[in-house]
Design a protein that fits this description.
Structural class: mainly alpha
Strand content: 5-15%
Strand order of the largest sheet: 1-4
Largest sheet: 2 strands, antiparallel
Length: about 350
């Protein structure tokens, strides 16, 4: 019998929470460097650090890439790796790290809206209620900051829209393991931003600042991104992002502890509303009869989930592992999430 969605997704939820804690630390830690490095330099070093963090385990792995996967990866690198980090660094230059961290809750709304509209990631009524709550919480936070808050919200909001597109595209990349995707995104995005920085500005920071930026990127972007991609492939981009939306609260706590920042007016209410909205979104589930077409791809999986019938001698069915494998056509009904195997159409929703 296949595991229930809650049981099967438990490990993925824990991975998304760990990814959130690491990414949430990026804003307050990055705030320590925003006046020592130019935005392009800092953004480039953060993503280059992410690539270096996964290089030992990722550089030899990866299967053939078809056209669809290449296009998804290229768009994800451009939107989420090159442009969005620069917008975030610019926001950190004009606002407190705590305020920027809280505004990052917009990413879950962007991911969910794009997923529902363009990527067959079903939300349902409860899901849209959760999205509306996250948007209201972010708007409350931006309004409490006055005019500078509105400019910050515009920068972070655009970055979150680009990361939302990145999240949905990355969740559908099934030709490469998460570490390999992180390596490519980090190396290309980091290299592009550093090249632009070298062309536009002659002065470069000291080795200590460079090392600090690489270290922050390795933990807060590299390890975090690997964990998030693993979770998104098993939960779907929207639910993984909903769990990942706890990142701003980790960032706020660290900003208070490390930087001594006070919470903006209205921030506590916004945090509570955002937390409740994320809970509503995560709880959205659905069941119906659906058909799987033949498919070949690579991702982390188990053999007791009702979708992986191939065998390995001596490998227990509940052991999670990764390799390239093929699926035959099958039709069945069971509770499911919009993971790599469940991006079918829902004409009645």
């Amino acid at each position: 019998m296949s595991p229930t969605p809650d049981r099967a997704a438990r490990g993925a939820v824990l991975e998304a929470l760990a990814a959130a804690a690491l990414f949430g630390a990026a804003a307050p830690l990055g705030k320590l460097l925003v006046y020592r490095l130019a935005p392009l330099q800092l953004a480039g070093l953060l993503y280059l650090g992410a690539a270096l963090a996964v290089l030992p385990v990722a550089w030899r792995r990866g299967g053939p890439m078809d056209g669809a996967n290449r296009r998804r990866l290229a768009a994800a690198v451009l939107c989420g790796g090159i442009v969005a980090p620069v917008l975030l660094v610019l926001a950190l230059r004009i606002a407190d790290a705590a305020a920027v961290s809280l505004l990052l809750t917009l990413e879950v709304a962007a991911t969910a809206a794009l997923g529902a509209l363009f990527f067959r990631d079903v939300l349902g009524r409860r899901g849209w209620v959760g999205i509306a709550g996250v948007l209201l919480a972010s708007a409350t936070l931006a309004w409490s900051g006055g005019a500078p808050g509105l400019l910050t919200a515009a920068l972070v909001g655009l970055a979150c829209l680009l990361w939302g597109l990145d999240n949905n595209l990355t969740a559908l990349i099934d030709a490469l393991p998460p570490a390999r995707v992180t390596l490519i995104k980090g190396a290309v995005a980091g290299g592009c931003n550093l090249l632009l920085a070298a062309l536009l500005m002659p002065e470069w920071p000291g080795l200590t600042d460079v090392a600090a930026a690489l270290a922050i990127g390795a933990l807060c972007y590299g390890l975090s991104l690997v964990l998030f991609i693993r979770a998104a492939q098993r939960l779907g981009a929207v639910r993984a992002q909903a769990t990942f939306a706890t990142a701003p609260f980790w960032g706020v706590a660290l900003a208070a502890a490390v930087l001594g920042e006070a919470l903006p007016i209205g921030a506590v209410g916004a945090m509570l509303l955002a937390g409740l909205s994320v809970f509503i979104l995560v709880r959205a589930r659905h069941t119906h009869w659906h058909r799987h077409e033949p498919l070949e791809h690579e991702h982390s999986h188990r053999h007791d989930d009702g979708h992986h019938a191939h065998e390995h001698d001596g490998l227990p069915a509940d052991t999670r592992h990764t390799h390239r494998h093929a699926h035959g056509a099958i039709a069945h009904a069971h509770p499911h999430l919009p993971d790599l195997h469940h991006r079918h159409a829902h004409e009645d929703r």
